[in-house]
Amino acid sequence: MQEVRLALIGFGNVAQGLVQILHQRGEQFARQYGIEFLITAITDRNRGSAFDPNGIPTASLLEAFQHPGGLRSLSNQAAEWDALEMIQHSPSDVVVEMSYTNLQDGEPATTYIAEALSRKKHVVTTNKGPIALRYEELASLAKMHGVQIGVEGTVMSGTPTLRVAREMLDGAGIRSIQGILNGTTNFILTQMECGKSYEEALAEAQRQGYAEADPTGDVEGYDAAAKVAILSRLALNAPVPYANIERRGISGLTAEDISSARAKGMRWKLIGSLEKKGDEVTATVRPELLPDEHPLASVSGATNAILYRTDLLGDVVIIGPGAGREQTGYAIIQDLFAIYNVRKG
Ligand code: HSE
What we know:
Mean pLDDT: 95
Bound molecules: L-homoserine
Structural class: alpha/beta
Strand order of the largest sheet: 4-3-2-1-5-6-7
Helix content: 25-40%
Distance between the termini: 16 Å
Largest sheet: 7 strands, mixed
């Protein structure tokens, strides 16, 4: 049995999803694949830290999620570490970075990831900030230290997106990418088509937990632009800096725009797109009017979708969840399986 020790940064929704999956399926993974994931340390800037070299029971972590004291309620395992101290002192093979997204400079997550890689620990992250803004330096640090960095959950949560492009579509020649990459805005647009107001629809997206802490990131297209930057590097291998992506959100769309589009058999969607023309790549995020027969037009609610237009296969469309606790937690499992080469049969 291979034992993999995980140190977790962040004790929010994504961590909860990951812990839930390990709680429900950890034994099955051990049986089927001979691999056991132990959470040996976890830290959160507001909810305390915990440590147990033998693995903190997932049942205790699930109770701590519900407890007002958070990780401090785990009296046998409570620790005083902050994130950097945890990376430096905890026995761990992989640091799972799930702290908040900062699209200004990618901090503090970039510092945490760099510290972990420099200590020869693999990193898995769902955080868009460091990957959209600082991927090159982190990838070369990983290479220098002979470890890996898993980033699948940064785009479309656990719906296979980046690895599909890198490992399965590369030879097919991806010419362009179009995606509904933000669940909150797609949810708002769908609700507005059903007659809800923009304000009502946004409030509902916040209640459902899709929206970022500051929903400006969603509605003005910053979140989608971060994902376009990540796709440019990881799916197209033609990096476009985040700051160079032409971006417009959905806040300028009126109820009238949406209903008159419907009357013409069309729908407004917030589309992130990348298009290769020779050596040039154009990258945009903006509301686009799609005819009903377009492969992305019928994708509704918080669901995400991506259309890879390729030379050899034609169009490949992937539709699935783009946010959510277990959905994003599952992206971490995919990355862990890839790092440890877990395969059936
Ligand atoms: N706020 C994001 C969305 C979460 O609505 O898609 C997932 O990145």
